[in-house]
């Protein structure tokens, strides 16, 4: 966590806690199939990029991309760790995390696994930290239904 | 992390650190097959719920459920992330985490995988945070020996 | 996190953040195949122990062990959680984490999985926390290319 951006160090520590919580809530509501709560974690003019040509601009469009998750998957589990937070101002942070996601499909097919990175821009909207931009880059997949993903850019 | 419960914000940040540590110690002692140290992370009148009809009331009963872990598994690895802490008072927190657990059996059979959620009540007992209640809900399993689990309640 | 070592509790919380960041940066640069950035996370007289007879003393030797990672693996993903930090002084901490690492090989063979523990000595060098000693102990592997590992010492 960069410590330059905040005049108040203990406030920045509390902000980091709130940002980690936001990231955990996203995974939770995705796994619980709570599309409305998921969308509420984003600001109105958000941008979500799940892959090339797969994503959304704005909350309404994002809500549409979430339709069908409930029936396409029988269950998912999104495990997020390795949180790196860079505050660029008191109200904005660039955040990188890594993801291991397990997917059980409704249709008869092997479980899908994804290993990847989230690259986020997270902003404070009044008192709440929310996603302004969330981009998923994919390190690798196994038996996953999506074939074209953004790469992590490994050297 | 809810910030309402504490009069002292930096004390609450330190408490959150201690609570994350408790959760990590549980996984460590389980994987190391340290039943005595595991039981000591719980208060005397604890409640542990691993599944329907599988759990314990009180430390003595909990210690009994841990018997046999050392010989049933050759190895386990419990990975806990996505920690969400809600302080309900200065001495009590409701905590939700998610778990990916890998199990290698002593008997010849495929490794068992579990993806799930822990829902905990964690309390401060004099200076130590301890589990008062720990409930495991299961998102999904693969080749796991237990067949009946508490569901996460996905919509 | 032990709270005895620091005279300033909020400074210790900030240090814990920096230490978690260091641990995440290691995994990131390993997965991105950034050997130079990886080596820079270590002090000059570092010790790295990946297994019996497999490791390095000093940054130059460590850099050599990293050669070939870029071509041996097509991709890796290192997921680190369950962070336990013990400060032994204001400038040194003993840190234990657990690792789930996924490896896709360049050669045609099944993906390799490793579940393990990192046991680290992390020190402050001027203003930066760096690894002084990093030891990997292995809980178990599946289809992994390395056959001899340091055990976790499960009872």
List the main descriptive attributes of the protein structure presented here.
Nuclear Transport Factor 2, Chain: A, homotrimer, 155 residues, alpha+beta
Write up this protein.
The structure is a homotrimer of 155-residue chains. Chain A is α+β, with helices and mostly antiparallel strands. Chain A has one domain: Nuclear Transport Factor 2, Chain: A (Roll), CATH 3.10.450. Helices cover 26% and strands 48% of the residues of chain A. Chain A is built from four helices and six strands, in the order H-H-E-E-H-H-E-E-E-E. Chain A has helices at 9-31, 35-39, 59-66, 69-72; strands spanning 42-51, 54-57, 73-89, 92-105, 112-125, 128-142. Chain A has a six-stranded mixed sheet. The longest helix of chain A has 23 residues, at 9-31. Chain A is globular and about 55 Å long. Chain A starts with 8 loop residues before the first helix and ends in a 13-residue tail after the last strand. In chain A, 37% of the residues are buried. The model of chain A has no long low-confidence stretch (mean pLDDT 94). At the A-C interface, helix 1, strand 3, strand 4, strand 5 and strand 6 of A face helix 1, strand 3 and strand 4 of C.
């Amino acid at each position: 966590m960069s410590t330059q951006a905040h005049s108040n160090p203990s406030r920045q520590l509390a902000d980091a806690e709130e940002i980690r919580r936001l990231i955990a809530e996203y995974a939770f509501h995705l796994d619980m199939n709570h599309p409305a709560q998921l969308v509420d974690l984003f600001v109105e003019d958000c941008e979500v990029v799940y892959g090339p040509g797969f994503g959304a601009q704005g909350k309404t469009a994002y809500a549409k991309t979430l339709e069908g998750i409930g029936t396409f998957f029988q269950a998912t589990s999104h495990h997020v760790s390795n949180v790196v937070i860079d505050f660029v101002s008191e109200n904005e942070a660039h955040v990188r995390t890594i993801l291991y996601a397990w997917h059980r499909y409704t249709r008869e097919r092997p479980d899908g696994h994804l290993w990847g990175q989230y690259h986020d821009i997270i902003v404070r909207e009044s008192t709440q930290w929310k996603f302004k931009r969330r981009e998923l880059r994919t390190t690798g997949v196994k038996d996953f239904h999506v074939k074209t993903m953004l790469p992590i850019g490994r050297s």
